[in-house]
UniProtKB/TrEMBL annotation:
PROSITE patterns: PROKAR_LIPOPROTEIN (PS51257). PANTHER family: ALIPHATIC SULFONATES-BINDING PROTEIN-RELATED, TAURINE-BINDING PERIPLASMIC PROTEIN. It comes from the Bacteria. Gene3D superfamilies: Periplasmic binding protein-like II (3.40.190.10). It is found in: Periplasm. Belongs to the bacterial solute-binding protein SsuA/TauA family. This is ABC transporter substrate-binding protein.
Amino acid sequence: MTKKIRQFRPQLLMLCFACLLAACSSSSSSTNQIRLVEVTHSLFYAPQYVAMSKGFFKQEGLDIELTNGNGGDKTMTTLLSGDSDIVLVGAEAAIYVTARSTNQSVVAFAQLTQTDGTFLVSRQPIPDFKWSMLRGKKLLGQRRGGMPEMVSEYVQRVNGLTPHQDVNIIQNVDFKNLGNAFVAGTGDFAQLFEPVASKIEQEGRGYIVASFGKDSGHLPYTCYLAKEQWMKQHPDLAKRFTRALYKGQQWVATHPAEEVAAAIQSHFPDTGKEILVRVIQRYQDQQSFASTPLIEEQEYNHLLQIMKEAGELPKPIPYRQLVNTEFAVPVVKGE
């Protein structure tokens, strides 16, 4: 018996060593995995998909598990319940949570887009469109309380219109059905995201006549949020995530739309190359993609002002309370 044990001892040691390596590898993998939930799957988030396709997250040793949250409320629920580590959603979601809850501390630590991403689609081409042309018309709009709708109302006010009085805003259509509803005859105009707007234009069923993002200015439109506790527990993960994102942002900022489209094509297999290029070019032209992850205080205050004018700001949340720049600043500096 002793002889048999001695014969198997080397194999036993090798097996134990293999198990130890596997355990360490598994632990390392789970430690570097980030559960990321995006509010929707959109071309508007091109720098994020470039960071994934070009391997920038992998270069930082990160394994990104990406999930579509299908809406702001559902996306934020995953964060608050602990089912996600980071969420990509409108900054207003963090403001709502912070203003209404003393138990949940959420921070925005990086921005992805810096303008609204919707466009005004008309039934007829209007070469010299003016926002005053919405007066007395029906506008198929976005849901109340969301940034697209608040930006729309802000643009209307800036141009001398009173939302819901001068403009009949239709808000009883689900987000996913807005394009089909417009094509079916609902509204004189529609506020639509890409690529829906460009697809309707390509089919000759509507015409993009104005940009809400271009006419509303810069603001931290879509940001990465995390619980403050998670940020304190995983500062290295947060910084590596921010660095990978920055690489994606810089890549998009320095490459033509055709190359960006090719880089993210695998993330949008059902969208043709022509539409991809057209949409990305449009967003690049109006600087919708943030070139750095840093959330600027002036742009954040502009966001608060838009929310206040819309009557949707529960209470003003100071920049320093909601925005964490301890990772974005050194990343941009190359530290």
